[in-house]
């Protein structure tokens, strides 16, 4: 759904040049977005699950697998996501430091 909203926003910004889309254009855009999302889902279904992912288990889990599951499920193994989190934290502290440093400098207005 987020993909649909992002595509709609970008397409309206770039192609519409500030004009409001007609109902037919909105409908055509929605059909295109649904078609591309369906194609992505079909492509993923054909590709199959990744080797590191577990297949979805519909049976209730046993006590042995549930004991090991919760401790490892919340740890991210995606290194790019981890880099993004670190970059976000560094940026936040940098912005906070810049704000605090600049708030102490107040010039007096002289007449």
Describe this protein's structure.
This protein is mostly helical and 111 residues long. Helices cover 68% and strands 0% of the residues. It has a domain at 2-51 and 77-103. The protein contains four helices and no strands. α1 packs across α2. InterPro entries: At2g27730-like.
Keywords:
transmembrane, membrane, At2g27730-like, mainly alpha, 111 residues, transmembrane helix
What value does the average pLDDT take?
75
Care to count the β-strands? 0
Unreliable spans are 63-69
Sheet with most strands: none
Strand portion, in percent? under 5%
- The coarse silhouette is flat
Number of helical runs?
4
Distance between the termini: 57 Å
Oligomer: single chain
Helix/strand order, N-terminal first: HHHH
Q: Give the fraction of residues assigned to helices.
A: 55-70%
Structural class: mainly alpha
Radius of gyration: 24 Å
Give a quick summary of the entry.
The chain crosses the membrane at residues 80-100. This protein has helices at 2-15, 23-47, 63-73, 79-103.
Please describe the topology of this protein.
Layout: H1 2-15, H2 23-47, H3 63-73, H4 79-103
Helix pairs in contact: 1-2
């Amino acid at each position: 759904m987020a993909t649909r909203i992002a595509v709609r926003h970008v397409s309206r910004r770039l192609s519409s040049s500030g004009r409001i889309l007609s109902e037919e254009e909105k409908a055509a855009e929605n059909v295109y977005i649904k078609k591309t999302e369906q194609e992505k889902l079909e492509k993923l279904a054909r590709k199959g699950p990744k080797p590191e992912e577990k297949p979805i288990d519909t049976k209730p889990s046993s006590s042995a697998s549930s004991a090991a599951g919760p401790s490892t499920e919340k740890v991210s193994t995606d290194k790019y996501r981890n880099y993004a989190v670190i970059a976000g934290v560094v940026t936040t502290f940098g912005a906070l430091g810049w704000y605090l440093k600049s708030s102490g400098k107040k010039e007096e207005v002289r007449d």
